[in-house]
Amino acid sequence: MDPSRSSLIGLADMEMSGSGPRPFDASTTTTTGLFSLEINKSFENWLVLGRLDERDKMLQMKDLGLDEKKEYQVFEFWTKKYMGSFIKQFEPGPIDSIYHCQVFCFREKKDHPQVIATNRHISCGGVDLQEVDWKGNNLKGKSLIVPGDEYALYIFEPDQYSFNKVITNTEVTILSNEKTGNIRRIVMRSLTAVNINWEIVYN
Fold it and tell me: Most CB atoms within 10 A, among 109, 150, 154, 169?
């Protein structure tokens, strides 16, 4: 909503009727096509960026509140596409005609395997990831899932790391474990558990 509209909300007390448009009415147009949300967890902070139109062709990291000297992994939620890693700026490209919008997750690039997204919510893990920790060649985490739903982890794996195995709760079933490029997609499901523990072991 155009912020200038809400700044005039005090005029509502002076109107004698509700007929016709008023200067404080919500607008059907926006001053920008970009909307950001910072996710702050005890184990990691990341940025989620919604893009509703293509008026901004190139996005500067500093304009998003990110450090232009750091490298960021970018993942698009709706298409489940890994966009790559970027420094200083990012070109989002055309919006998919199926979804009519884009949701990007920006995570600072690590020198070890890291979670770059999950499939449960557009926050790319903000709702479900309770813990994530890298320790001794193992990526461990705890997730809050919906019983019966398929839950997917998207993991970036640097070339120097070799995947060994996935360990989960006994009531969790691993439905698939596939790797495309540097992205591993692990899909799991539990019919009963709400909080699940998972661990990815590397050589």
Answer: 154
Contact between 55 and 113 under an 8 Å Cβ cutoff? The reply is no
pLDDT band (50, 70, 90) for residue 29: low
Task: Determine the average pLDDT of the residues in 139-165.
Answer: 97
With bands split at pLDDT 50, 70 and 90, how would you rate the model's confidence at 7? confident
Interatomic CA distance for residues 91 and 107, integer angstroms: 16
What is the topology classification, in CATH, of domain 1-11+30-109?
Answer: Immunoglobulin-like (2.60.40)
Token reading at 141 = 């985490």
Cα 13 from chain centroid? 41
How many Cα neighbours within 13 Å face the side chain of 118?
20
Confidence of residue 135 (pLDDT cuts 50, 70, 90): very high
**Hey, which CATH number is domain 112-203, 1.10.3470, 3.90.580, 2.60.40, 1.10.8?**
2.60.40
- Under DSSP, the state recorded for 121 is S
pTM over cut 0.70: yes
* Structure-token pair, residue 48: 């989620």
